[in-house]
Write a structure and sequence with these properties.
By secondary structure, the protein is mainly alpha-helical. It is built from 11 helices and 8 strands. The strands form 4 sheets. Strands 1-2 form a two-stranded antiparallel ribbon. A two-stranded antiparallel sheet has the order 3-4. A hairpin with a 7-residue loop joins strand 3 and strand 4.
Length: 257
């Protein structure tokens, strides 16, 4: 009987993991990879909240600290957990085969999440978990319907309830609504955070999820800032070269005309 129950749980988890995303009306996200303070806060959030189950096995601690302006001694003291060294990849000790036995599907590596789904998708996904008694973990997600993952940030955000139907939630968006210009209160929201259930205010939580998404955007393309800087120099060079080539062309054709 025990084996049958385990098999049923694994089947449900596998089905949840393969569920198709919804047509949720997402709030826009714009990454700022030059905001090192945001990236540093995002890395701290990832290490302390996500890295127990999810790895970033294509990224090294040393490269991350260098790009984010974090000294090695601070990285080793606060952001490198377990037996990792500064030059190690950001892997975890969880065995994939064991994880599949526990959860039905091993938690995925998150290095390229924003390259696959986009930063806007991730930002909205992180913010739109809500209580759902019919879901296997007791929570659902407005962006990824029937998600096979618990809401590990609920103690920060608070308990979120959905007051709309599935169709209304997709049409309105989770935390959008009409703002009263006099009181500043927002009405028409589908997702409501129960007051006093989270350690962060809504503004603080949204900022924390911005920082986390910003960091994961950086990890998905760590050379982007350098590429943009080099690209600027290349364009300047091409502009100068074009001007010099034009003067050379005039010199060559002066006697002909």
């Amino acid at each position: 009987m025990k084996k049958i129950l385990i098999a049923l749980v694994m089947l449900c988890l596998s089905g949840a993991a393969l569920a198709a995303p919804s047509n949720y009306n997402m709030e826009p996200f714009r990454a700022d990879l030059r905001d090192q303070e945001s990236l540093q806060r995002g890395m701290a959030m990832f290490v302390n909240r996500c890295m127990g189950c999810h790895s970033m096995e294509y990224q090294r601690f040393a490269r991350t600290g260098e790009d984010l302006g974090i000294p090695e001694e601070l990285m080793e003291e606060y952001l490198i957990l377990g037996n990792h060294g500064i030059n190690d990849l950001m892997t975890i000790s969880m065995d994939n085969d064991a994880a599949e036995g526990w959860f039905g599907k091993a938690p995925p590596d998150l290095t390229l999440t924003t390259r696959v789904h986009g930063s806007t998708w991730l930002y909205n996904y992180l913010r739109t978990f809500y209580r759902d008694d019919d879901a296997i973990f007791g929570v659902n997600n407005a962006v990824f319907v029937d998600v096979g993952m618990p809401h590990v940030l609920e103690d920060l955000q608070g308990i979120v309830v959905n007051t709309c139907s599935r169709e209304e939630l997709e049409e309105r968006g989770g935390f959008t609504g009409t703002i009263d210009p006099l009181t500043g209160t927002r009405s028409g929201q589908c997702l409501q955070v129960q007051p006093g259930t989270g350690s962060m205010s809504p503004e603080e939580f949204h900022q924390a999820m911005y920082d986390l998404t910003n960091f994961m955007t950086y990890v998905g393309e760590p050379s982007r800032v350098q590429a943009e800087r080099i690209g600027t120099f290349v364009l300047i060079f091409l502009a100068i070269f074009t001007f010099v080539a034009y003067l050379l062309k005039r010199e060559y054709w002066r006697d002909i005309h």
